[in-house]
Amino acid sequence: MSNFDSRAREWDNNPDRARRAEAVAAAIRRQVPLRSDMEALEYGCGTGLLSFALRPYLGAITLADNSAGMLEVVQEKISAAGAQNMFPVRLDLSIEPPLPRTYSLIYTMLAMHHISDLAPVLRGFQAMLAPGGFLCIADLDKEDGTFHEGSFAGHNGFERAEFRQWLLEAGFGNVRFETCYAIPKHNRLYPMFLAIAEKP
Question: Within a 10 A sphere around the Cβ of 195, how many other Cβ atoms?
Fold first, then answer.
């Protein structure tokens, strides 16, 4: 995670990152009946752009990431905003157990394609989601490998049908998708989906 640690301070300088966070937040609001008493978890929160966009519509928000640099920036932003309902935590579900609590909403943006093996992460989401809760995953549609510059060990986006199957196998139901944004990069657009699933 040293790459994300080193980029944390300048991360929010790219205005497109704020735009896509707002777009994903709007898509989540369309798909999920958010409430001011709803406890939520953002996984792979980065600098917290998505959680800050959703903050007016939720109760307590746990912001989880495995980058110490990103979490340091998140804590500074929380303090500056006086956001007493936001709580950063270091967490890597690829190698660590889920947090010992449940949430009504779990969401993530552009984190899953960085994770080689999604199965333990999806199981972690399933364990932390309360019955009747919502999981929202925003990530890249399948792309040709040009989105990331240099060597990249993750996924070049995802096929929606395959991603749906993974969610069903992890125990989620009522899976649906919508296109929520397109990232401008390399003089082209890379579409993003929002996958919404529910825990029975």
Answer: 24
pLDDT digits (tens, 9 = 90+) for 119-150: 999 999 999 999 999 999 999 999 999 999 88
Concatenated DSSP letters of 65-83: ES-HHHHHHHHHHHHHHT-
Total of domains in the chain: 1
Q: Rounded to an integer, what distance in angstroms lies between the CA atom of residue 70 and that of residue 78?
A: 12
Could you tell me if 44 and 51 are in contact, meaning their C-beta atoms sit under 8 angstroms apart? no
Structure tokens at 89: 């935590």
What CATH number has the domain bearing residue 108?
3.40.50.150
Q: Residue 146: give the domain boundaries.
A: 2-198
pTM of the predicted model over 0.85: yes
d(C-alpha 61, C-alpha 170), whole Å: 24
